[in-house]
Write a structure and sequence with these properties.
heterodimer, A: 544 residues, mainly alpha, MetI-like fold, 22 helices, 0% strand, globular, B: 340 residues, alpha/beta, D-Maltodextrin-Binding Protein, domain 2, eleven-stranded mixed beta sheet, 13 helices, 11 strands, 41% helix, 19% strand
């Protein structure tokens, strides 16, 4: 049941407290800017030739990467939304689904490792296969190429989902009513697809603009440096917080512009009736070449990594069963560190989602919109900036691990708030109110009715926190410099940096294992949440 | 759900596992901030820690600061960190004196009882204890490169397109020293032309020597900036001599590495003992085969793998005062040029 007056934001004390709590994550960034931001430094920075070079290069890199993602992603989305029988390459939808999960679940460092294993100057293609040498890495184009392959799944997911859930039905209806293919495309499909494309483009741009580990690992150094790496260098090489704040302000402005367009795209994304039908097989555009292209990309990337993996393990030279076996101990220590940080982040996320689901009685669209927008602020701020801001306001003797947990908690917000909002949207408040009417007190009602109902989003949020934390690199990398044991993702980066592939492969396997485990937890609890919500809906309807 | 609960319990268990021993060790340890290859499993650091603990019962905990310049910059951030404040910094070389002075991270009280480096007249200030030295050079893979360069200028030859791995002078000691080397050879007025011509030959500029050298030995590039002594590692441990040093008759830049006590050290006495311990014969003997550098004492016998190494006949070094005065300007110019 929607709120009767959606134009008024009516928040309870608890909800205000919650907004304040969420704001605690955003506050350090603001504080840091207030205390270190200098207009003099900012104007000096804007006039600096090197900054201009790097800023426009970063913009160009992110724009080209986003365009590449759309070029690759839109046909992917189209195929993703097709009926299986319309596709000529078996398993293509599964492959596309894997690509669509990668940007959200697979840490970029794992992806970088796969790329180096396959395309490196001494990788699978150049070392083991008798093919012409491919010098793909260590250039601006390698950064763009890897961004495209890594991020095009965003477009597949967002646009494909929109196509699958609703748009095909409208297109189909227009065709039945006599519209030509062109008319149907321009007057029905295009207007409906634009918001989801804009949404995908905004998120992709943001990911590429603030990309760190891909630029650090696959760029050639100063020639390919990005704004994010420039911030890192300002701190790491000179501890120049004023300069870093000025750079961060620029990044923040770009981020908010993108978030603004993202929000506008969402606002225009008019909810439409869902159809379960898809286009008939004979009216499909098969995109046969694209299908084979995606299949080839999938095989080269994942099959190639697996093959390179096997060749490196059983090939000549030191291997897992030889001199490098001792390296297992530091890897396990790193795993322990990652689980410690991830576990703490998961606890925070679980606690926050409990709060959200418990006091989020206000279910108006405006309230959800406010919460989602508020929580999405960390998306516009790079993890590195949040990290640096925390460093500047917390005493130096706070262990880096604690700061990493705080950063990870902030980064989890844009993902866990929507999970809870979805739950709040579906929950039937009268079921929670019923025991109160029957004499139960608030605590009884909370523990026996509300909490069991909210179990799935709480677990999904905790798993999401763990998932994000275990693969996060930027904060762990910077703050890890002050720690004795690096996290698993940082360990993997160091292994790639040192080209100790055997250690890297063990670290990557563990990382992937945990990523898969927690992704499955998130999916499991989210789908269970949906089933529960559907069940609750059914029960409520029966009751009324 | 049970699986999930089981996992969470596991996480909590791991927390205790990792938190408890650290807390216990904090009371009787010396914290040493050092660069990555020093603290690596195969580096000199673990051996020094083991022998120092055996002799003094003081536990040594290392903090990996990345490359040497990054380590020095990081040291500044520890000043107020009561838990991890390092007592010693290892890896300050002859090119970083002005940097450590400007950051005020080292105690400037002279460390008495230290031996002077014997092979060269160049040395470190009295508050730093030298423990090894070497010469920067271009190391190449002779299987990938049959005709190595014979001078810095020749590195700009088109046949070396995308062949060279260098390090960033802002974060890496070798990177900064290579910049100074080019200044020493071509003069301030000539470096812009040299670096512009060198750009096509550079495959990557990494943030640390370890990363750059890792790329090189993995076969990603045929040449890397390293030390004349680096091939000794491969001769000694891999029984291969495919990695060689390109010796330039015009000269090579010298690197003298030292350790000092931090200005905020909690345990000054033991910190001084630790830095002096780096000059003991046992450690000096270990320097060639762990840090793959030359020991400072001429009395220390070099292993067989070092016997075949060529030493440069000419040595470059820039004066501290010059680096102090113009170092930042050179760095800014380099950054701008290389960003284009």
């Amino acid at each position: 049941m929607e709120s009767s007056d959606e134009s008024v934001i009516r928040l309870s004390t608890g909800q205000w407290a919650l907004l304040g709590f969420v704001g605690l994550i955003v506050f350090p960034v603001s504080f840091s800017f207030l205390s270190h931001f200098s207009f003099e430094e900012f104007s000096e920075l804007l006039g600096s030739e090197r900054f201009q070079l790097i800023f426009f290069r970063t913009l160009r890199q992110a724009s080209i990467s986003t365009a590449g993602c759309l070029i690759l992603g839109l046909p992917g989305a189209w195929l993703y939304a097709q009926h299986k029988s319309a596709l000529s390459v078996p398993g293509i939808q599964t492959m596309l689904r894997v690509f669509s999960i990668i940007p959200f679940c697979v840490p970029p460092i794992v992806f970088v490792f796969c790329v180096v294993l396959v395309f490196g100057n001494n990788g699978l293609i150049n070392r083991w296969l008798a093919l012409p040498k491919i010098s793909f890495l260590y250039s601006q184009w390698s950064i763009i190429g890897v961004h495209v392959i890594y991020d095009f799944g965003i477009c597949v997911r967002f646009v494909g989902q929109a196509l699958r859930e609703s748009i095909f039905g409208h297109v189909h209806s227009s065709r039945i009513l006599g519209a030509s293919r062109l008319q149907s495309f321009f007057t029905v499909l295009l207007p409906l697809i634009v918001p989801s494309v804009a949404h995908a483009a905004s998120v992709t741009f943001l990911f590429c603009f603030t990309s760190f580990v891909i630029v650090m690992s696959l760029g050639s150094g100063p020639r390919d440096i990005s704004l994010e790496v420039m911030i890192y260098e300002a701190i790491r090489n000179g501890y120049d917080i004023t300069r870093a704040s000025a750079l961060g302000a620029v990044q923040l402005v770009v981020g908010f512009v993108i978030i603004g367009s993202y929000s506008m795209a969402l606002r225009k994304n008019i909810p439409i009736q869902r159809y379960s039908m898809t286009l008939r097989k004979d009216s499909m555009i098969h995109l046969g070449l694209w299908q084979w292209g995606f299949a080839l990309l999938f095989v080269v990337l994942f099959g190639g990594s697996a093959l390179a993996f096997i060749l490196r393990i059983f090939g000549k030279g030191p291997n897992l069963f030889g001199s490098n076996l001792i390296a297992i101990v530091p890897i396990l220590r790193s795993l322990g560190k990652s689980l410690l940080i991830g576990g703490s982040t998961a606890m925070f996320c679980g606690f926050l989602s409990t709060l959200l689901c418990s006091i989020g009685i206000q279910r108006s669209r405006l309230y959800r919109s406010v919460m989602n927008s508020w929580a999405s602020i960390p998306l516009a701020i790079s993890p590195l900036m949040i990290t640096l801001s925390l460093i500047t306001i917390f005493p130096r003797n706070i262990p880096g691990t604690v700061l990493v947990v705080l950063v990870h908690c902030g980064l989890s917000l844009p993902f866990i708030v929507p999970i809870c909002m979805q739950y709040i949207q579906n929950i039937q408040e009268n079921l929670v109110q019923a025991p109160r009417n029957l004499g139960a007190n608030w605590v009884q009602s909370f523990f026996h009715v509300r909490l069991p109902q909210a179990r799935s989003p709480i677990w999904a949020s905790a798993s999401m926190g763990m998932l994000l934390s275990i693969g996060e690199f930027n904060a762990a990398f910077y703050l890890g410099a002050r720690e004795r044991v690096p996290t698993l993702s940082v360990y993997l980066y160091q292994s790639i940096g040192r080209y100790r592939f055997e250690e890297g492969m063990v670290a990557m396997l563990l990382l992937v294992l945990f990523v898969v485990l927690f992704t499955s937890f998130v999916e499991r609890f989210r789908s269970r949440g949906s089933r529960i919500s559907a069940y609750v809906q059914y029960k409520a309807n029966s009751l009324t | 759900m049970k699986l999930y609960m089981f996992f969470l319990i596991g996480v909590i268990f791991v927390n205790f596992l990792f938190a408890a021993p650290q807390k216990e060790a904090e009371n009787k340890e010396l914290i040493v901030l050092a660069y990555d290859s020093f603290v690596a499993d195969w580096g000199l650091g673990p051996l020094v820690a083991e022998q120092f603990e055996a002799e003094t019962s003081i536990k040594v905990q290392y903090i990996n600061g990345g490359d040497s310049i990054a380590t020095v910059v990081l040291a500044q951030q520890y000043a107020e960190d009561d838990m991890n404040r390092p007592d010693v910094i290892v890896g300050v070389d002859n090119n970083m004196i002005s940097l450590v002075n400007s950051l005020d991270i080292l105690s400037t009280d002279p460390i008495e009882g230290q031996k002077k480096i014997e092979v060269t007249e160049d040395s470190l200030p009295s508050y730093l204890v030298p423990f090894d030295y070497g010469y920067f050079s271009i190391v190449y893979n002779s299987e990938m490169l049959t005709e190595p360069p014979s001078s810095l200028q020749e590195l700009t030859d088109p046949r070396f397109l995308d062949s060279l791995v260098l390090m960033h002078p802002s974060s890496s000691g070798p990177g900064a020293s290579f910049l100074y080397w080019t200044i020493a050879e071509f003069g301030e007025e000539g470096i812009a032309d040299f670096w512009s011509a060198l750009k096509p030959s550079i495959l990557s500029v990494t943030d640390s020597w370890e990363t750059g050298y890792g790329m090189f030995i993995a076969g990603e590039a045929p040449m890397v900036l390293s030390y004349t002594s680096s091939p000794a590692y491969h001769i000694e441990y891999e029984q291969t001599d495919i990695y060689k040093t390109a010796i330039f008759p015009s000269g090579h830049y010298i690197h003298i590495e030292g350790a000092g006590v931090t200005s905020y050290a909690r345990d000054v006495q033991n910190a001084r003992e630790f830095v002096l311990f780096l000059q003991t014969e046992a450690i000096q003997q270990a320097v060639p085969l762990t840090n793959i550098m030359y020991p400072i004492s001429t009395e220390t016998e070099l292993p067989a793998s070092f016997q075949s190494l060529e030493k440069p006949s000419e040595v470059y070094v820039l004066e501290d005062s010059m680096i102090e005065e113009k170092g930042q300007q050179w760095l800014d110019e380099w950054n701008l040029l290389m960003s284009q």
